[in-house]
Amino acid sequence: MSDLLYDETETELRGAVREFLDDRAPWQAVLEWTELDEPHDTSLWNGLTGMDVAALAIPEKLGGAGASWRETAVVLEELGRSVAPVPFLTSSVLATAALLAADDHAYLRDLATGTLTAALAIPFTTAPGVVFRNTVTNDGDRLSGTVTSVAHGLSADLLLVPTVEGLFAVGGGDVDRTAVISLDRTRPLADLSFDRAPARRVAVGDLPLDHALSVGAGLLASEQLGIAERCLDMTIAYVKTRYQFGRPVGSYQALKHRLADLWASVGQARAVARHAADCLATDDPDVPVAVAVAQAHCSAVALKAAEECVQLHGGIGFTWEHPAHLLLKRAKSASLALGSPSSHRSVLAELVELPL
Amino acid sequence: MDVEAAARQFVEEHRGLPDAEFLRARFDAGLAWVHFPAGLGGLDLERGAQSAVDRAFAGTPSNRPDRIGIGLGMAAPTILAAGTAEQRERWLRALWTGEEVWCQLFSEPGAGSDLANVATRAVRDGDGWIVNGQKVWTSMAHEARWGLLVARTDPDAPKHRGMTYFALDMHAPGVEVRPLRQLTGEAEFNEVFLSDVRLPDGDRLGEVGDGWRVATTTLMNERVAIGGRSAGREDGLIGIVAGTWRERPELRTPALQDALLRLWVEAEAARLTGRRLRQQMAVGAPGPEGSAVKLAFARLSQELSGLEVELLGEEGLRYDDWTMRRPSSVEMTGRSPGYRYLRAKGNSIEGGTSEILRNIIAERVLGLPGEIRVDKDVPWKDLPK
């Protein structure tokens, strides 16, 4: 039975990551950074990976820290809280999971230290459990085609590209990349074009892609939990100090009841996200259902939390000079990422035998 | 000898006794509720030791916990916390064996969410009290021997300070129990009319004027009692609706499918939340999440039962039975979808309305400012009624 609590190591890890992000990625810094038009915050990334967090899910013999997706999920909660503009989900989760499933060890050591970043060359909306439509073909070890809306695709040193014949690795310099003006500027997208790009085959078949999507979607739920928690905390703090009609606005039941409901939803999201992370860490047969439930549920909770955060802050929440919009944009794009709630419900319909 | 072995030995040695005798002997051996004090059905052990004891007693005479839920869940903790040695001795044994059923006389027509507004009066009369008033929403009153009564003893004091807590003999002259028929057609509950009921002072629980504090003990235990069990996937209403979906392809539409899947996800989220809560309790760190369990349960049961009626189409227009029955426990699965839909409406009202629960979460968990109170320091008799 899944363990839904946080153990001592996970709690310590959370503390260290939060302290680092509070110091290095306060929301003002994140906002400033989004206007620099840089693909990711290199100095923040170097500091973060210096804490070995990118190595967590990689076995020690492959140069990793030999922990699991459970600890990785805790890091994602904190990254969600801070909306940090780093390629952790894309490089340390999606690409790393693909390479682990491919049993290809060429890049894992550098991914673990963060000196190399990789991205899976798929549209960020790609969902697990749904037939993937390849848009890139390979002629031997030359790739041609295009992939749109690749998260952190502009900055990745290495691209992992699925074709009908398997998974290929392409150096960033061999891809034509166009930056996309993204809804969530903290996780910018890029359109990729391959024109007989030289590639190295890392796997035959779909398994690495399927595994990566499953891990990515399951752990994205933890990032969404972090977003939801931050929105809730921020809003509670605000309604206690904002006075209108001579009373803190948080003393009105219209607001209290909405926040009580939101708090209850966040508590549920925690159980659901921990279940998915634990199932992924232990290779539980429940993984497909756990992932679909986690995405269908946590996407909606994070989005609701961000939308309530904007509304309950009133005018200030609608301004550029307040962090609510960073969280809203992250929550909305994360709800589409790796499958929308409705696509996960469709997958679930088959998994739990509730067909149309 | 460990407690499980002791329980097994007890079962061996008492096999074949009549049910009531077996249960009394089990109580006297301290194997009833092992976390209770020795001499009162327990052995002063950890609460966690009970499950091994219950395993050992599987298949032996049962005290029918479904029938004596109020006794076990509310009366017993209250008697233990506020009762005198004599009262504990007098009441706990027959309570646990099920020989004496208990009910709760708290709510009144004018005191629902605002329980501290009770108007039932208890007036001193020599070495006892005379009680007059009306109570409502009393489950099991028609079968109960004892009632947990909160009555006003000092109308001049502010509302929370003028109440006293008693155990009321339901067989005393002047106690009249009438069924309260609810919108499902049946009568799970009762109205209890108290007319010049004489109550000995020895049946008072706690000090005079201390009724609110004692009642809080009872209510805290009520909330713990609701929604604590471990559930499997699709346990409960979701399983019924999902079963209908699988067996009846002709009922399916895309819109109903999405509605069902949304609720399936919610039911699973609620189940995992319950699992996490139990894991927290097992390591001795219960979080405040428990207060959200009833809120989620009420919403889910209402939405699921509503969807079930809609899914069934024409059948959803039919009902199983409007006869006034007197059930001793709520049976959601044994009745028709229409019954489930109607009964679920009570889930967000009984045991604290969802609105009151949201206030409690907002104020006690989130630390938001309390409601502005106009009734706190005013004598109860001067409050607008």
Assign the structural class of chain A, choosing from mainly alpha, mainly beta, alpha/beta, alpha+beta, or little secondary structure.
alpha+beta
Taking all residues together, what is the mean pLDDT of chain A?
A: 97
What is the H/E order of chain A?
Answer: HHHHHHEEEEEEEEHEEHHHH
Oligomer status: heterodimer
Quote the distance from N terminus to C terminus of chain B. 60 Å
What portion of the residues of chain B fall into strands of 2 or more residues? Answer: 5-15%
CATH homologous superfamily designation of the largest domain in chain B? Butyryl-CoA Dehydrogenase, subunit A, domain 3
Protein name (chain A): Acyl-CoA dehydrogenase family protein
Organism (chain A): Actinocorallia longicatena
Cofactor (chain A): FAD
Family (chain A): Belongs to the acyl-CoA dehydrogenase family.
Structure description:
The complex is a heterodimer of chains A (356) and B (385). In chain A, helix 1 runs parallel beside helix 4 (69-82), helix 7 (207-241) packs antiparallel against helix 8 (253-282) and helix 9 (287-312) runs antiparallel to helix 11 (341-351). With 356 residues, chain A is an alpha+beta fold. Chain A has eleven helices and ten strands. In chain A, strand 9 (243-244) and strand 10 form a beta hairpin. Chain B has helices at residues 3-14, 19-28, 50-56, 69-82, 85-97, 211-225, 237-247, 254-282, 290-312, 337-344, 354-365, and strands at 102-105, 121-125, 128-136, 146-152, 163-169, 175-180, 189-200, 204-205. With 385 residues, chain B is of the alpha+beta class. The termini of chain B are far apart. Chain B has a four-stranded mixed beta sheet. Chain B is globular, with a radius of gyration of 23 Å. Helix content of chain B is 40%, strand content 14%. Chain B is built from eleven helices and eight strands. Chains A and B meet through helix 7, strand 10, helix 8, helix 9 and helix 11 of A and helix 7, helix 8, helix 9 and helix 11 of B.
